[in-house]
Amino acid sequence: MTRKILVTSALPYANGAIHLGHLVEYIQTDIWVRFQKMQEHECYYICADDTHGTPIMLRAEAEGITPEALIERMHGEHLRDFQGFHIEFDNYYSTHSDETREYANDIYAKLNKAGLIEKRVIEQFYDPVKEIFLPDRFIKGECPKCHAKDQYGDACEVCGSAYSPTELINPYSALSGAKPVKKKSEHYFFKLDKCEKFLKDWTQGKKTPEPPLQPEAANKLKEWFAAGLRDWDISRDAPYFGFPIPDTDNKKFFYVWLDAPIGYMGSFKNLCQRKGIKFDDYWKKDSKTDLYHFIGKDILYFHALFWPAMLEYSGYRTPTKIFAHGFLTVNGEKMSKSRGTFITAESYLTQGLNPECLRYYYAAKLNGTMEDIDLNLEDFVARVNSDLVGKYVNIASRCASFITKQFQGKLASSGTIVPVLERVREHAPYILRFYEDRNFGFALREIMHLADEVNRFVDTAKPWELAKELAKDKDTTKQQTLHWVCTQALNAFRLLTLYLKPVLPKLALDVERFLSISPLVWSDAVTLLPAGHKINDYRHLMTRIDPKQITVLTEANKESLQAAPQAHSQQRHAQHQEKIMEATTIPNVITIDDFAKIDLRIARIVNAEHVDGADKLIKLTLDLGTEIRTVLAGIKPAYAPEQLIGRLTVAVVNLAPRKMKFGVSEGMVLAASGTEPGFYLLSPDSGALPGMKVK
Hints:
Elements: E1 4-9, H1 20-38, E2 42-49, H2 54-63, H3 67-84, E3 91-94, H4 98-113, E4 117-127, E5 132-133, E6 139-142, E7 151-152, E8 169-173, E9 181-190, H5 196-203, H6 215-227, E10 232-233, E11 235-237, E12 252-254, H7 256-275, H8 279-283, E13 290-296, H9 300-312, E14 321-325, E15 328-330, H10 345-350, H11 355-365, E16 373-375, H12 377-406, H13 419-426, H14 428-436, H15 440-461, H16 463-472, H17 476-500, H18 505-515, H19 547-556, H20 564-571, H21 592-596, E17 600-610, E18 618-623, E19 628-633, H22 641-644, E20 648-652, E21 658-660, E22 663-665, E23 668-669, E24 671-672, E25 680-681, E26 693-694
Helix pairs in contact: 2-3, 4-7, 5-9, 11-12, 11-15, 12-15, 12-17, 13-15, 13-17, 14-15, 15-17, 16-17, 17-18
């Protein structure tokens, strides 16, 4: 059945360049959208620059240009970078648009009519030199908790404490250095607490056919509900770059986070006007279409609380699902200018690196959860060269020339289909499921396992030796065998290309031209190329990454430590969510001999099921390579059983069996947890197999 789907990514702030951390989200979304379009669903992917707020106004002032000129320039740069990584929006727009203003005013008026807007006088810091009320991020001072100097007005980056700006000791303006004064002003508040009953039901899936949030996200929401929902300040005082609140004589403006998500509606409205799409089909209250938001976990509060409440009480539909992803680290650490790992999208492309290599590497790390992912630059080179060049492209490069040289470019009849080709074809529904669930890493592991099998088939058949023998002796049987082997391999290569197309769209296009076929869609997985089909001459499809390119890339992105703080502050968006980071200490030290006593093995979860009567347990059946074991794991609050089947994890196998109320557990799987609710299973890298020892 054809679905109607609207997909969005979070709106990048128009105050800085797109970097590799940003690209995790847009690449993830683009892969999923391309997959939906390959199934021939009616799917639209829209986005926009988030263009309002004090940082935009101040940067434009510093550059001596208007905010409008700044956001127009940034729009061009952002779109250039996205297109460079083959991210294909159906519409990439701006929140500073008539369409977004129209829906912002409409939603505000309806919320006001519903009694959800309240005016109240507050006291806040004011810069007497710049004559502007200061956002939290533009106030600095001494932390009231640990007394660290030069901390921001909302949270301390040393001890992690959250506080209000008025609690800072010896505060000063980050703009002018002046001591701010307290000044009263009337602000507009959205009474989120009045929406609590609806939000509790909605976030836990009681008002939707399926839960709209990932389990770990829903658990996080429970924590916020327990802490109590606070009213949301949706206004800012002039001067401010944004939309004025109606009937305030341009003295009050909508806070950027009010109109930013409404920018989804504005961008889609613009697309509808250009393409003749019916806007109400996707946004009216009783819409039967699907609305999916891809976001970073840092803006979950806005998208899972404020946004659905705004939509519900203004008469619009709520999202079908919100997919949150984790952050990006580089070489296991936060991106760093001094190390050259704060890499912009433009810099990556300027160094001549293939954008599809990064798309593939990110996809290989993504699994549909909120786990952070790491860009290990050494592993990046090794995996791309091994998987894409050494395995996938290798199939075509080893077989295509024999077809063009020996058989005028025409394929043989498939005849008896070799078992490996049948396995490649039979895997289509499994890979489809992985893509649908955003378990891209699982999909790519399966695809590369299949590529390995195809290469083993070619290794065994040795078409190059058959060709050498034919040069000496035109044996008809050998000629038919060569023709058949290469045809089988290229049919398998075509199917692997189909499976990889959402991740590697440009490479897939090159393969489609080489094979002289129509653009691949998912239904093509059941067919093979017919006898006599003529392919084009093979041209090299992909080159290996030279490690020297990575060295040049990191060197090109190094900046002095003195320059880093200013650049960092320019990237900061209007942050409302509190991020509390607990200090950690090193546990008791152990020796290598102590560690060696623990037998850690790679395990594949071949089955997972609920345990009757248990609130937290899931029964896991683990394949350890040489044996099968049953483990009872307390991860039910974080995972549904169907999410776990097929994935690899790490198990402790020399733990004494434990007899429990619900059965015997024959080991333990490893998971990470912290002060926040949730468990996160450890997953090995691509290529690990059940039974391998973890050292």
